[in-house]
User: Fold these one by one.
Assistant:
Number 1:
Amino acid sequence: MKAVILAAGEGKRLRPFTETIPKVMLPVANKPVLEYVIDAVKNNGINDIIIVVGYKKEVIMEHFKNYKGVKITYVVQDKQLGTGHALLHAKSHIKETFIVLSGDNIIDNKSISKLINEDSKYSILIKEHPNPSKYGAVFIEKEKLREIVEKPKEEVGKFISTGIYKLPKTIFGIIGELASQGIYDLSSTIQSIVDKGEKINTIIADLWRDIVYPWDLIHLNETMIQRTPSSLGGTIEKGVTIKNDVSIGRDTTIYSGCYIVGPVIIGEGCEIGPNVCIFPSTTIGNNSVVQPFSQVGNTVIMNDVHIGSGSVIKNSVIGRGCIIENNFSSIDGSSTIEIEGEFKKLEKIGAMIGEDCNIESNVIVKPGKIIGRRCNITSLKIIGDNIPSNTKVM
């Protein structure tokens, strides 16, 4: 059996973090989301994978060029018209029943196992969700799919489609027929199959998580970090306190006086401390520095980040390559955030800072504020509004 992974999209609602990389390559617990999907497939004995790429495809292809244990074939979707349109690009590589997954959703091994071992022509993984109106809501009758409604206007039912299916190769004829009518989404294809009287089995996924907004990185990181075992590498000086599950990469130095409470992941080539406190659900990417007397908690820090001393960072996302000088504070609290015309009320949210920002000393960022990539913020500023990319705040 082969697997097709759809990974062509950008993820506009995740800007500024997707301005230079596709959504599927955003790091969660120091691994790209797409890597979790590939591993779940590989761990179920599927070693032949077709990945449909598009936006910033080079980033994906470079990361997985030496990935062991699977054969990856890339096909390019130049225009992102829809999931059905994306799947159609894999047609020439499929000769039998296959599974299709989204590259931007994390799925676990057990759920994929249940899907591929289901004795049926068509199967779909579904998941209970508190907000089905944001996804494809599914309606079930005797464990069979009765109807799938893409982003219903009303909150109806409790199950959603994960976008993960087991399908026969004949699906491509149906997708092509609908595409000729200007219908490009896979949900419409599935509904047309149901309308013709075909039975589609529904299987409830164990772990399935989506990333839609920047703060979803924090919540998903909090989930996945608990699945990472302890592994202490590098150099840990005397006087360091480590509690619970903590993973520290090679060539990393944890200086004396640091206090780390897991689950925490610290990447390779980092310098932490002295006297730094790192609290649960924090990941720090490779080649990053956190200078003395700083506190970090429930935060995603990507690769090549420098955090100055005396800083306090909670419930935040710090993009790759940021240089943040001393006494930086991301205040966490409640905030209403607008993304692509949608307003979201959040609690305990800090700052979201795009890559390659330079933030000078004694800067405060208020809850829920989004700072774009390549921004420069001079000392003694209080950031109370979102800052677009490539902005200088003086």
Number 2:
Amino acid sequence: MGFRLSLVVLLAVAVSCSRERTSVAVDAALLTQVPADSVIVGAMRVKALRGTAAWKKMLAQPSVNAQLEKLAAETSFDARKDLWEILWSTDGKEPLVFARGEFAPMGLEPKIEREGVQRMSYKGSMLLGNEENAVWFVNSSTAIFGHTAKLRQLIDARDTAKAGPSAALRERINALPPNTHFWMVADAAAMPKLPAAGGGEGDKPQNAMAMNFLQNLPKLLATVRTVAMQVSLVDGMAMEMTAFCADDAGAKQVHDSLRGVVGLARVMLPGPQREALLPLLDAVEVTQKQTEATLRARLTVEQFENVQTVLQPKPGSKVAD
């Protein structure tokens, strides 16, 4: 009897391990650090991105490579090979950036050697930065960047139960497909309400269209409950953004507004960028399914590379520190 029971357990484990993942892999060490009052959470899965053509093209840009070289010289890690995942969140007021990677070799203490960076100890935790912004190295593979006062609040609350994101956000995260490289979820119902936009209309028709959209944005967002966005760079680019609304009528309003935004973007595109970016707008599809309004776009490898070329910094442009 004991042997049979053990065999059944082993078979169950084997079956569960052989199932293909149906949702995006989220680093639990990061997700559990996210404050429960976060209204937006997003991520970039760096480790998964390294095998894509888009990542290699990005690293081939001199300005990007120079910035990463500078970061490697000032710290104990190289983001090009030591960074695994970046996650960010906000409660509508305070942004936080979370990172997982190999921040210190051989278990040594992480370091940042940059002018003005101080080592600050708080309740047994190490902060590197100044009284305005700092990095809290939770351990050698987990770091959190934000305003120093906010990091101290996180340290104060570290012994309490870490609920992570709300149930509404977790539901959207769990529904993201496994091949997602960039994702964002938002609890629109919990976000601070936008003030009504004022001001007069411009003399150009597109200015009037943009002002009309901004004036109606608070009313439009009032019907949205949550939003989920995902981008995959497996083969070219596939992007999808869905607004989950309170009712069908609200989803219809969002659907019509998204179509209007796409049309407005086509009118307002600067001339030099029009040729490369129009294929992106041409690829956009806006649909509605009951209480959901979805915007999708799909670019081939060649089209996406053209878009990257247009958007990348021009030679000689200043790289921010």
Number 3:
Amino acid sequence: MKVLVATQKPFAKVAVDGIRKILEEAGHEVALLEKYEAQADLVAAVADAEALIIRSDKVTEEVLAAAGKLKIVVRAGAGVDNVDLEAATKHGVVVMNTPGQNSNAVAELAIAMMIFMSRTQFTPATGSEISGKTLGIQAFGNVGRLVGAKAKALGMKVKAIDPFLPAEKIVEGGAEPAESLEALYAGSDFVSIHIPATPETIGSIGYKLITSMPKGATLVNTARKEVIDEAGLEKALAEREDLKYVADVAPDNYAELKEKFGLRVFATPKKMGAQTAEANINAGLAAARQIADFFATGNTRFQVNK
């Protein structure tokens, strides 16, 4: 089987070498498409591929239609909003992710962002400590639980909410269950967001939730920019001069927010939650193993489409 590794942001060499070793030992051919400039390059390259490994690369209807032999796509990471899942199902293509492989990297970034904003972006101005503060975690999956554990180790009180987890599971994960999303925001000095971008969550975090946060609170977004109502965020920051926002992906109105609110706002230049050597390697190797297992045994454990 031909496996195409298509990455505009390439894996580290050690990860590529590991991916190649896993797949070639399983009897598969590996082709690389790295740092490609246009979506048309991916469309052309996928024509004879039977499996595809991607990172943040977009697998659209156009890509899937061009991939007549494609049987499986594995996204090396957790989020799969860059893959058209409905189109994949229509074309008979299994889509998987690699849950947990990037989790620690994202969790460490979330903690770092809290400290960065608490210390006024490391300027000489007087900052504050996160110890003793309350952290609210919105979605308590792999990343959320790790953020909570690290926060507790730093002396924070941790609350969490997750619509897919009963309260006892949140307690088992080391957090206090919040009664509601509104209560989580109203009672947290920091809220760390870990929800996917879905029709239900896009634009769901806006003015009302943000302005319900306590004085001096910080909203931390290492999830997706789409879950924030950007107009509502701007309005909240304008009315509440004590609030702060930090994100792993810049909102569309970032330049305006930065000009208006200065050190109260920060976004990384490019999404970097999973940009560590360890996460890069872990996710790539997991993707390769899942493809080898899929072709050998039919295992679809991490399938995300129906």
